[in-house]
């Protein structure tokens, strides 16, 4: 991966909503790490440090170095609970990974050459139907994102899930049907057409009743 994220955490033993509220008042985020053929472990993270990581899109789809009281393990971020109205993270879930076992993770879809696509140059409008997708692969093959090259797309063209160009070792899960549209270019609205322009010219030549 192009970026390495180190997440610092501490083990915790206190449970319950009251304990979680106390942690949040101290600027900490309660969390849990599970998987990897080990027992789940409750942890805490510094809220502001976690927020800085979350500013990077790659953080959501990368292998992370999680250090709990100086013991390191490879994990991926599996879930976040955010406050519905405030910029606060309420809880974080991490999953341990084994480099020899495949994992499932949702990764973003990046659309390249959109502004210069054939159909866009002709006035077409782009509709993104899918902006992230679930993949399965070995941790070493985990992509930060899936690339969709739109350079040759014309008005009316559609790229389906089955047409995605996946990196080596990466497969799609069955979370999305193969014929689901990922992106399409449809005709623009409100623009004058040649037929409309001719109609206007013809109207000017008529004699009012």
Any chance you could write out the topology, listing elements then pairs?
Blueprint: E1 5-11, H1 17-25, E2 28-35, E3 38-46, H2 47-54, E4 64-68, E5 71-82, E6 89-96, E7 103-112, H3 118-121, E8 125-128, E9 132-137, E10 146-149, E11 158-160, E12 171-172, E13 181-186, H4 194-204
Parallel strand pairs: 1-4, 2-6, 7-10
Antiparallel strand pairs: 1-3, 2-3, 4-5, 5-6, 7-9, 8-13, 9-12, 11-13
Domain Large ribosomal subunit protein bL25 beta: 102-187
GO molecular function, one term: 5S rRNA binding
Organism: Thiohalocapsa marina
Key features of this structure:
single chain; 209 residues; alpha+beta; Ribosomal Protein L25, Chain P; 2 domains; 6-stranded mixed barrel; 4-stranded mixed beta sheet; 4 helices; disordered C terminus
Structural account:
With 209 residues, this protein is α+β, with helices and mostly antiparallel strands. It contains 4 helices and 13 strands. Strand 5 and strand 6 (89-96) form a beta hairpin. The protein is 15% helix and 40% strand. It has 2 domains: 5-97, Ribosomal Protein L25, Chain P, CATH 2.40.240.10; 104-186, Ribosomal protein L25, C-terminal domain (RNA Polymerase Alpha Subunit, Chain A, domain 2), CATH 2.170.120.20. Strands 1-3-2-6-5-4 form a 6-stranded mixed β-barrel. Mean pLDDT is 89; it is low at 191-209. Keywords: Ribonucleoprotein, Ribosomal protein, RNA-binding, rRNA-binding. Residues 102-187 form the Large ribosomal subunit protein bL25 beta domain.
